[in-house]
Amino acid sequence: MTETEPExxxxxxxxxxKARFDLRPSAEFWxxxxxxxxxxxxxxFMGFQGVDWLAPRAEDLLDWxxxxxxxxxxxxxxxxxxxxxxxxxxFHLGMNMFILMVLGRILEPVLGWVKLSGVVxxxxxxxxxxxxxxxxxxxxxxxxxxxxxxxxxxxxxLIFRSKAFGAMLGQIIVLVIVMCVDLLLALFSERIxxxxxxxxxxxxxxxxxLLIPGLIKAEWDTMSGGLIGMLGMLVFIASxxxxxNLPDPLGRYLxxxxxxxxxxxxxxxLLNPLLTADSLSQVNQVYSDRAEAWQNQLERxxxxxxxxxxxxxxxxxxLMRLYSQLKxxxxxxxxxxxxxxxxxxxxxxxxxxSKFIQLDSSLRLP
Length: 366
What we know:
Elements: H1 31-48, H2 58-63, H3 69-73, H4 79-82, H5 90-111, H6 113-134, H7 144-160, H8 169-187, H9 194-216, H10 221-244, H11 249-269, H12 273-276, H13 280-302, H14 311-340, H15 343-351, H16 353-363
Helix pairs in contact: 1-5, 5-6, 5-7, 5-8, 6-7, 6-9, 6-10, 7-9, 9-10, 11-13, 13-14, 14-15, 14-16
């Protein structure tokens, strides 16, 4: 009979703890949670101010700082940054914030908050710049450009320095699954800003390459941070060059619409020329001047190409053109009537009023 030691006295082999999927903030993971809190807080505040929680209107998003080429060209440069913190509904926000937290949990402990904040800033600016460069009219919101930038950065670091992320296998697996779902959803949505994703992704790849030296040798860490700063300055300078050379079709359309409304209001505010003119020749001149003004408006409308605009603006521009054409014709008829006193001209001009009533109901201009 042999003696054996109690089980609790026998040395047990050390079991390596498994990497846990833990998104709780900590001393080494706090910068990204703050970004998430800011965006969630802003979304809630917007909702309490009347913005739709599920499908906010583009006008409301613009009022809160969404990205738009025309606004940026008009020196509202802050939209290059504020647009990223606004989201188009609770589902958009929820998906982005979850992915951002997972990415941050992987990257922030390895890179530190200083370098990670640099990557966030650079990819944010790059994705916004790509968005307005590609989309002349679209309203852009959301943090997904930064998310794709962080994903690209992580991919580069995993390829060249995978050992630095050895304890985070669980987070990386979750991230891959979520990103695959997100990409599949993006393929079937026309609202996704692929330009912003692409811009953030490309610059994220560059950031990853610049950060590799700091992960190889500790003494190169400061150099890596400096390189990220230099990349940020290059993107910042490039943004002004790009903005100065971007065409602005929406801005031109809005100017045409504004002049149309002003002319329409002016004409409606004028008294009947018969009540203010001293002679029929003056009445004739008033209508001739109105016809000329509407002809100028028609030429401004014709200077815009319908292909530059979405269907809704194409329809509105076509209606404004038709309205201007009819106004030219009507004012010429009135001018001819007061010059020749032919009843047929009077009838033709008066009958056109019903067409303007129909056009006004279709235009629905502000």
